[in-house]
């Protein structure tokens, strides 16, 4: 029996935390093979000498520049800085590439908010029109036929799905407080220059980018189809560990709805969502190196607390990107993922 011909994948920004995670997962993918890698910092070096800890690739590729030509029939992942994605994504689409962008360049539809939170002018809003936001649990059918996916931010991945379950109850909410705590690889670790040094978080714990984090407008735009935009306060914190995000979502109600059945129904059949019996059971150690989002919920009086956990480098970045790739390629979305 002959083996199926491997499809090609190109990874731009392959030397960053997220790019490396893409390489790790794709190395075990049965139907995709990495055929092109870029890193402006590591150009000229090979995968093996740069990442000796990764599984030996079938082809010891050499890092090229972000601007170098890409094999014509390759699916393209961009784990690049926002300004690089803004420049490259329109070019790639004009050449017919199907693209999953892991930067924040194509997540927000409001150019004014993009400039405020990303400190860049958005000059590719025409390309934004064809973009699909890549949460498979919410937009699976659109992703299947999409040519351009905006892979969600890591913090939004942990909160948008559970909040979307509550869409019909938005008018009954007084406010929503999201307290999210990330390992150091989630604090800018998508790009090859990103991340905070571990020495700055060791024996330390702090909030950062208060009322100014770039994922706040993303959470507001996509949570419950934007119906909660004026009710959400989001505060990120930095944990003294490498990977994982634990989010505590506190909802204050005018009128408390019955939620247990709604959550059970929404999570049923989702391959990477695990609804746990108690929010205390949601722990980072149980989701690290997996593509799962664990969810726990409890209500009392006029308050509901939802706790979620994801691995920011997998479900919050590379794993979800490959889940989206599988859907775009007409494959089982779980292929190559755990």
Write up what this structure looks like.
The chain has 338 residues and is an alpha/beta fold. It has helices at residues 17-26, 47-50, 82-94, 111-118, 125-128, 136-144, 154-164, 215-222, 260-267, 314-328; strands at residues 7-12, 32-38, 75-78, 99-101, 131-133, 148-150, 173-182, 206-207, 232-238, 245-253, 273-275, 293-300, 303-310. The chain has a 7-stranded mixed sheet. The two termini are 27 Å apart. Residues 189-195 have low confidence and may be disordered.
> How many structurally independent domains?
2
Q: According to CATH, what is the topology of the largest domain? A: Rossmann fold
Number of helices: 10
Task: Please report the total strand number as a whole number.
Answer: 13
Q: Any idea what the CATH superfamily of the largest domain is called?
A: NAD(P)-binding Rossmann-like Domain
Name the shape in a single word.
globular
Determine the N-to-C terminus distance. 27 Å
Major sheet details: 7 strands, mixed
Structural class computed from helices and strand pairing: alpha/beta
β-sheet strand percentage: 15-25%
Q: Order of SSEs, N→C?
A: EHEHEHEHHEHEHEEHEEHEEEH
Radius of gyration, whole Å: 19 Å
Low-confidence stretches: 189-195
CATH architecture of the largest domain: 3-Layer(aba) Sandwich
The CATH class of the largest domain is: Alpha Beta
Mean pLDDT: 92
The strand order across the widest sheet is 8-9-7-10-13-12-11
Helix residue percentage: 25-40%
List keywords for this structure.
seven-stranded mixed beta sheet; 338 residues; 27% helix; Dihydrodipicolinate Reductase, domain 2; alpha/beta; Rossmann fold; 2 domains
């Amino acid at each position: 029996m002959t083996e199926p011909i491997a499809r090609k994948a190109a990874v731009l920004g392959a030397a960053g935390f997220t790019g490396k995670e893409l390489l790790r997962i794709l190395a075990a993918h049965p139907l995709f093979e990495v055929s092109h890698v870029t890193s402006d910092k590591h150009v000229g070096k090979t995968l093996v000498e740069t990442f000796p800890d990764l599984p030996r690739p079938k082809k010891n590729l050499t890092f090229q520049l972000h601007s170098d030509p890409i094999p014509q029939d390759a699916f393209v992942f961009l784990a690049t800085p926002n300004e690089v994605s803004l420049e490259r994504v329109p070019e790639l689409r004009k050449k017919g590439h199907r693209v999953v962008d892991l930067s924040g360049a194509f997540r927000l539809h409001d150019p004014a908010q993009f400039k405020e939170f990303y400190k860049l002018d958005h000059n590719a809003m025409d390309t934004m029109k064809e973009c699909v936001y890549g949460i498979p649990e919410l937009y699976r059918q659109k992703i299947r036929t999409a040519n351009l996916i905006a892979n969600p931010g890591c913090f939004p991945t942990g909160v948008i799905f559970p909040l979307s379950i509550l869409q019909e109850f938005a008018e009954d909410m007084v406010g929503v407080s999201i307290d999210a705590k990330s390992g150091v690889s989630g604090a800018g670790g998508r790009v090859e220059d990103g991340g905070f040094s571990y020495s700055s978080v060791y024996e330390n714990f702090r909030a950062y980018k208060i009322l100014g984090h770039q994922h706040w407008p993303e959470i507001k735009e996509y949570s419950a189809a934007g119906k909660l935009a004026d009710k959400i306060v989001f505060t990120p914190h930095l944990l003294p560990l490498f990977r994982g995000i634990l989010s505590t979502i506190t909802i204050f109600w005018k009128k408390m709805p019955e939620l247990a059945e709604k959550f059970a129904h929404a999570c049923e059949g989702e391959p990477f969502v695990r609804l746990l019996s108690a929010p205390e059971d949601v722990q980072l150690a149980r989701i690290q190196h997996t593509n799962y989002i664990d969810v726990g919920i409890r209500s009392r009086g006029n308050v509901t607390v939802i706790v979620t956990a994801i691995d920011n480098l997998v479900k919050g970045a590379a794993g979800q990107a490959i889940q989206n790739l599988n859907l775009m390629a007409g494959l089982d979305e779980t292929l190559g993922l755990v």
